[in-house]
UniProtKB/TrEMBL annotation:
Pfam families: Usp. It comes from the Archaea. Belongs to the universal stress protein A family. Gene3D superfamilies: HUPs. Residues 11-79 form the UspA domain. This is UspA domain-containing protein. Signal peptide: none annotated.
């Protein structure tokens, strides 16, 4: 996990894009993302999407969809 976040931070800094990476543990990923966005007064939440459809989406749920539905700030979904 840290290797991936370090790579992301490096790319963002090279492009002069401010970035803040948070690693949290909790029971609901959506709730954790929403809480961090609120407490840090986030301007934009950027999430990746696996594009699951059908039964897989119904069983696994959708973090991206949950964040879009509950977020008070804009959310950018990258596929």
């Amino acid at each position: 996990m840290r290797q991936h976040t370090h790579k992301l931070e490096t790319v963002a800094k090279k492009s002069n894009v401010p970035i803040s990476v948070k690693i949290k543990q909790g029971t609901s990923i959506v709730t954790e993302i929403i809480n961090i966005a609120k407490s840090s007064r986030t301007d934009l939440v950027v999430l990746g999407s696996h594009g699951r459809t059908g039964v897989k989406r119904m069983i696994l749920g959708s973090v991206a969809n949950g964040v879009v539905q509950k977020s008070k700030c804009p959310v950018l979904i990258v596929k």
